[in-house]
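agent: user wants the structure for Putative mannose-6-phosphate isomerase GmuF from Rubripirellula reticaptiva. delegating to structure tool.
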Amino acid sequence: MQPYPLSFRPVLKQTIWGGRRLGQQLGKPIGDESNYAESWEVVDHGDDQSIVANGELAGQTLASVIANHRKWLLGKHVPDGPFPLLLKYLDCNRVLSVQVHPDDAYALKMPKPDLGKTEAWFVVAADPGSLIYAGLKQGVDQQMLREAIAAGQTEQALHSFNPSIGDVVFIPAGTIHALGAGLLIAEIQQSSDTTFRLFDWNRVDERGNSRPLHVDQSLSVTDYVSGPVAPRRCEEGVAGWQTMVECDKFVMQVMEEGTAKVGGDGKFHILTVPRGTVTLSVAGQSMKLDAGATVMLPAAIGSCNVAVQAAGTAVMSSHLPD
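agent: tool returned. relaying tokens verbatim.
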């Protein structure tokens, strides 16, 4: 089968903290409601499945493509099992709960085994005063965190900062974190739905009930050593790909100007355009990718060109490490 870029229908999620920017800014096919929180762009996790939207594989789930064309899509060295990564966009219309994710070893021993979750964020938009919570303040240990949670003052133990458009934030498993109100985020993560909630800002529903917390599990998987997490940014004036995150779960690169190669290395690559417009050239054919567009390049594809078309553009590439 001739390799070609795969595009997918997004899997849209609605919650009380969602808004409408997924449609307004990223062109997602949201309905009339105003609570669209997440757009899962590339996913193979149980019932949540990306559906191919183009080419001879149109209408097939990502799981089906992997089952029938695994080497073509993923390459030689990806372990058996479902697709290992998940790419999504999040529209945070209100502050999210404070969470922490376990690592693989812990998650695989849970009653419903799953992968752990290491993730990374690219800040697409940020309202003035928006906050990101990432990591514990220096010196906070387990007992101090437990006491802050019990007092309803978890925020006092957390490191926070005001993010800017273009910031990248790396959240390894075990890092306590929360996205604040007014943020639009692109996220690459392990394909996992394992989350422990340790604080929900003392919120209650109309009946006075709070959402369940997972305090003991959270405390047991939290990283008390690494401390505050600082944002990363592309170096200004540098053309081509810049590596923002390189870990044992994925590599995340960002390009804000110039032209660069992608693919042709025997690996799959996920490309998404958080801002602006790029041109992807494959085997002499070109396609324009506007803000919010996502494609997956199969491992079997040859080297492609990605060209930034205007200032203010950012394109993000994710793949597995060597």
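agent: one observation worth passing along. The chain has a mean pLDDT of 96.
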